[in-house]
Design brief:
The chain contains 17 helices and 14 strands. It has about 400 residues and is an alpha/beta fold. The protein has a domain at about 65-270: Rossmann fold, CATH 3.40.50. The strands form 6 sheets. It has a 3-stranded parallel sheet, sandwiched between helices. Strands 6-12-7 form a 3-stranded mixed sheet. Strands 1-2 form a two-stranded antiparallel sheet. Helix 3 crosses helix 12. The protein is globular. It starts with about 25 loop residues before the first strand and ends in an 11-residue tail after the last strand.
């Protein structure tokens, strides 16, 4: 084991899962409001004594589940909340991607529910992403409440999150996560459905529960302890001419407000077997969902996370910080679903991981007010020494799943 410095409190030794292509460097849980460079308290995907990661173990668990029994649990839950009095009986957050299309459509047309859709709008819509969003509502036949953030504040927080955390989506994700309970509370809806649980991607299997009611997950603590973009909320207000009301969009409900509700938040993927490729085909069939007209930079697929132009840049930053690019995520998932072999996954990672997403890069930099040169400087600042080595002016990974890193 080397003694090189590690950033983000990540595991010092790099170990790859023997079943998929994911390393143990993938963060599985991060304290979102105390999101500093040291990342104290962060959890990482574990790999067991047999060399298998949490996500692959979860895929094995899925194969042994009685899905007919799980569906009966779902029906019982829906019957408890079903309404026929002109009110919505569940809420489905999403942007019109394949997963939210599937969630909303199957709840309404197979199980007879009356969902309200809610959308935390992408920062920079792609043309095809916006068409999918419209088709989700218009072809699918749904009511939707879309929340468009204060553009000035969203740009500021995105730039700050890149500078402090090298995470273009950090504050965006916070707002996205916290919107659904707020909308549900406003409309008197007690049942909220997300899609897949993050255990599918490496969070601890114990997190794969069917319901979330934990107050700490969706409610705001003391304002003095809150950080956005790695900066205390009070400092943002003081230094950037921003009012508290401008930032409340990104923060959870106060605990006292949440306790007054009966909101239950469930993962539909707990009740229905979730296979991304099949979900994609379902969305195509029922709402004319369209994949990207070209391959997504950094990977080989065309239909995952395609609604926001910033999405590709986000995955590039994970490659810099953790040595994990978008192809690693996509290939690992397809290996678990037995659509490709590990050897095929290794080849895809070698070919596409770390490809720079230049298609929208300059447009994004102009949008948030950052010099492109500054972004590239930050790339070097956020490379953890235990992952990267500079060889004759070129940065190379020390360890790769193909065992062709500088230290392999």
């Amino acid at each position: 084991m080397n003694n090189l410095e590690t950033y983000f409190n990540s595991p010092r030794e790099v170990i790859f899962c023997k079943k998929c292509v994911m390393p143990n460097q993938k963060p599985s849980s991060i304290p979102e409001f105390k999101h500093t460079k040291s990342r104290d308290g962060a959890r990482y995907m574990s790999i067991d004594s047999e060399g298998i990661c949490d996500a692959c173990r979860q895929s094995e668990v899925k194969e042994s589940i009685n899905w007919d029994g799980r569906e009966m649990e779902l029906i019982a839950l829906l019957d408890k909340h079903r309404r026929n009095d002109g009110h919505y009986d569940c809420l489905v957050p999403g942007s019109g991607g394949k997963d939210s299309v599937y969630q909303a459509h199957i709840l309404k047309y197979k199980y007879g529910m009356h969902p309200l859709l809610t959308t935390w709008a992408p920062m920079m819509y792609t043309d095809y992403g916006y068409e999918n969003y419209k088709n989700w509502i218009e072809v699918g036949g749904f009511d939707n409440v879309t929340f468009k953030q204060n553009g000035k504040v969203m740009k500021l927080l995105t730039r700050l999150a890149i500078e402090n955390l090298f995470h273009p989506f950090q504050t965006f994700i916070l707002g996205q996560k916290n919107l659904a309970p707020k909308i549900a509370a406003n409309f008197g809806i007690d049942l909220v459905f997300y899609g897949e649980n993050e255990a599918e991607y490496g969070n601890p299997i114990a997190d794969n529960s069917k319901s979330l009611r934990d107050k700490s997950y969706f409610t705001m603590g003391h304002l003095d302890d809150m950080l956005l973009a790695g900066i205390p909320v009070n400092e943002i207000i003081e230094n950037f001419d921003v009012d508290l009301v401008d930032l409340m969009t990104f923060l959870p409900l106060p605990g006292t407000e949440y306790e007054k509700t009966n909101i239950q938040i469930h993962y539909l993927g707990y009740y229905l077997k979730w296979t991304p490729q099949e979900v994609y085909y379902y969305a195509v069939e029922h709402t004319n969902f369209k994949a990207r007209p070209f391959r997504t930079q950094g990977t080989y697929s065309k239909y995952n996370g395609i609604d926001d132009k910033v999405d590709d840049l986000h995955f590039f930053t994970t490659y810099i910080k953790y040595g994990i690019g978008r192809a690693t995520y996509d290939a690992s998932q397809e290996i678990r679903n037995k659509h490709i072999t590990r050897e095929e996954g290794q080849a895809l990672v070698k070919r596409f991981d770390g490809e720079f997403p230049d298609r929208y890069f300059n447009e994004i930099m102009e949008y948030i007010g950052m010099r492109p040169e500054r972004f590239h400087e930050l790339c070097d600042e956020f490379r953890s020494p235990h992952l990267w080595k500079n060889v004759n002016g070129e940065w190379k990974l020390r360890h790769t799943v193909n065992k062709d890193g500088t230290d392999d």
